[in-house]
Amino acid sequence: MAIALEKHGPYALITGASHGIGEEFANQLAKKGFSLVLVARSRNKLDSIASRLSGTHRVDVQVVALDLMKDTAAEELVAATSHLEIGLVVLNAGVYGFGAFLDNSLEYERNLMQLNMVAPMQLAHHFGHKMAQRKRGGLLFLGSAAGFQAIPYNANYSASKAYVLLLGEALNYELKPLGVDVEVLAPGMTKTEGTGAMRGVDMGKMPGKAMDSAQVVAEGLERFGKSPLVVPGSLNRLIANVGKYLMPRRAQTSFIARMIIPALVKKP
Ligand SMILES: NC(=O)c1ccc[n+]([C@@H]2O[C@H](COP(=O)([O-])OP(=O)(O)OC[C@H]3O[C@@H](n4cnc5c(N)ncnc54)[C@H](OP(=O)(O)O)[C@@H]3O)[C@@H](O)[C@H]2O)c1
To answer: How many CB atoms lie within 10 A of CB 114?
Structure first.
């Protein structure tokens, strides 16, 4: 079964819905008849997406403007949505950038872990409970091709996506018998506002071709409930398999470092 309103509705909560991949999830889920809860910091952007989607698709769209890097954010989001039946949670908000680990502040790295790892884990725990009680629902984690191997000069980000990958795959197994579908969607480079403004790197010099977010999201929704891990794009699947089956881990790390170093703003 792909994503389905009867199994994974009526409300889908999407973190990081104000632009990029999260906004595309909002577009495609509203088109399928889901009512939405849109979460990000930029209230104005969320409000304008909400009025566009509720007008076009006749669904209810609610907005929660919240900084998910705050320690109390998950509790606040749970409280703000306690009156709604959330059947799908898309754990999408994330921060990324390139640069030497020792050049980044500890505060930056800690905030990255809060947004990319801690908040998704907390929300999966809360909403997973509710869904298991109802014996229906779904959690969709945004992993990344960056989580399949170590990436020098993107170290803590790739580690955060490895965490998401393993958490999501394990939860797919644990929650399936409880009626809850779990997917990790692991895109390669995707055209979004975030990649357009990515810190520490010259995007024009990055290897590979970025996918469209519409295609990434469509594949994630089409494969939902069928597979614990979805890698959108045939080239990304090929690269993931070559890395996994044909290259020793150390060789993967130095290969990827050699690809990235020419694109770094500050060379090592
Ligand atoms: N684009 C890619 O190439 C790519 C590839 C693989 C995986 N991914 C993953 O896909 C997800 C989305 O990426 P994207 O490229 O679409 O990112 P993006 O364009 O930068 O959008 C990020 C979203 O997260 C929200 N956000 C950022 N910080 C937040 C915070 N502290 N609290 C609440 N919301 C926050 C942003 O909204 P506000 O600024 O309004 O808060 C925005 O809606 C991320 O998890 C990323 O790691 C992306």
So the answer is: 20
